[in-house]
Amino acid sequence: MAFSRIAAVILGLWLAGVNAASAETRRLDIVGTGDGIDVLRVVAASFMQQEGSARIEVPPSIGSGGGIAAVGSGKAILGRIARRLTDAEAASGIVYKAIARLPSAFIVHPGCGVSAVTSDQLVAIYSGRLANWKELGGADMRIRVVRREDQDSTLTVLRASMPGWHDLEITEKSKTATTTQEAIETVRDVQGAIGFGPFSRPLEQGLTVLRVDGHYPTDPDYPSSVVLALIYLSTLQDPDALAFLRFADTQKAADVITSLGSLPVKP
């Protein structure tokens, strides 16, 4: 599906969801990670279109840890995270519900002139051993590495799954983005930039999503992914939150997740 068509679908779902919930003043926020934020917003819009019982908002990232803290303290009813709960977090009564598997994509500014790399080349880029895109057949342009903080969920998954990443020391000549959205926008705006984050179809607008060892993020053999999950307290009784959690298990929600290039996680 071309991005323009996907964008139209997203906009249509969002408008329909807002209109369906306009008569209902109650707002229900789902707080937490920036990973999969586009996917969850469209799932929420689809829910509002169908249910119209509450206005579901997916605000900007406060990180998985922020979502867990908000739900655990009772400041938020629903949260979103991109890592597993620790034993202590689960023991506190927080429930983990996986909804989508998001491939961990590498993205570059289109001016780089490169659309495919090997896993070895990625290690060389992020270690600083490769410094110019012309060394990979691209433009004569400095490689500008955008990384995430050490505890970031995507970086954690990359270290666990991508060859050569477990003990990789990322070059000091890199910019650290504190949210997924900051990483994406930095790559979008900076000539020569490369970054990573959870894949969704909107990344294909204005960016180049790299093939790694011949595999695109949506290919079955792509090596790395992050799981997006909803969290809530085991004592949850809020009817709108419960309705949204049930909707997340439906085929309609699965179709939305698939349309954006992610894989639904079956209950």
From TrEMBL:
Keywords assigned: Signal
Question: Which PANTHER family would you find in this protein's record?
Answer: PERIPLASMIC PHOSPHATE BINDING COMPONENT OF PHOSPHATE ABC TRANSPORTER, PHOSPHATE-BINDING PROTEIN PSTS
The protein's matches in InterPro entries, at most eight in alphabetical order, are given as: PBP_domain, Phosphate_ABC_transporter
- Pfam families this protein is in? PBP_like_2
Signal peptide stretch = 1-23
Q: In this protein, which residues make up the domain named PBP?
A: 20-203
Which named protein is this?
Phosphate ABC transporter substrate-binding protein
The record's annotation in SUPFAM superfamilies points to: Periplasmic binding protein-like II (SSF53850)
The organism encoding this protein is Bradyrhizobium niftali
